[in-house]
Amino acid sequence: MPDRTNHRTSGNFPAMSATTETDLTAHSEAAPPVLLVHGFGTSASATWRYNGWLDLLADAKRAAIAVDLLGHGQAPHPTDPEAYRDLEDHVLAAMPDQAVDAVGFSAGASVILWLAAHHPRRFRRIVVAGVGANLFERDSERLRVIAEAVRTGTFDDPQLRYFADLPEAGSSRDENVDPELRAAMAAFLSRPDRRFFTPEILARVTMPVLVALGDRDFAGPADPLVEALPDATHKVLRGVDHFATPKDFGFIDAALDFLGAQPF
Fold it and tell me: What CA–CA distance (Å, rounded) separates 156 from 161?
């Protein structure tokens, strides 16, 4: 599948450059670019290119900006948690001056909502998935256990298997597991200013937001998030769990429709 995106690695790093395969000026000025931010433990390419999002947006004549979160994909992989402070700024630096539409999954959804609360004029419409009541939780011990599963590639709780078998770092049963990459992702989870949302913060997200959440997703229920957002629409993804969300046709269709980006 061809990569037709303006794929920008995140961060304020002078040595970094974007690989641009789409001429952004070729797209209609009436349709803003679409910012795509993936979830934890994966990458922009794995989430948006391989699941068909980039081709669909290209067919709709919409420019895509697929950003790798710090510690993921083609972005730098620091292993010091302090390096992940103000993580959202690395995504903000990859955004154009004009307002964008945005789609975020899981950790990427959290980043987009935080940015939208603090920079509302930079966004027109937003789609978030894989987040709900979990945005309001403050379980530091659970985060510590997850970070350890990521770092070591081992787990005692079956629910931690995904984090032990990170798609970008190799399976815990794979002899080629990259310890540096695992250390970077563990540092990502251990960053000192991990964001916790409140209704007051989310009240600043005044643009239209689609909240898509699978009925089997552990991030739910969606109600607290939907109720906290001033202009939210809730889409239930039937029979969909957290990790299947980015490739779910129901989610893709609802997101593109919400952004006015249907290719046909």
Answer: 9
92 located within any domain: yes
DSSP string of 155-202?
-SSGGGHHHHT-TTT--TT-TT--HHHHHHHHHHHT-TT-----HHHH
**Cα torsion at 111, 138, 214, 45 (round to 10°)?**
30
* Domain with 55 in it: 6-139+195-258
Q: For position 241, which CATH number holds?
A: 3.40.50.1820
Are 216 and 238 in contact by the 8 Å Cβ rule? The answer is no
Query: What would the two tokens of residue 19 be?
Result: 């690989």
Q: Could you report the per-residue pLDDT of 120-175, keeping only the tens digit for each?
A: 999 999 999 999 999 998 877 777 888 888 888 777 777 777 777 765 544 444 45
- In 3-state terms the chain splits into helix, strand, coil percentages (rounded to 5) of 40, 15, 45
Helix (H, G, I), strand (E, B) or coil at 247: helix
Structural domain count, the chain:
1
pTM of the model: 0.85
Residue 128 lies in a domain: yes
Residue 245 in domain? yes
Bridge-based pairing of strands 123-129 and 232-237 is unpaired
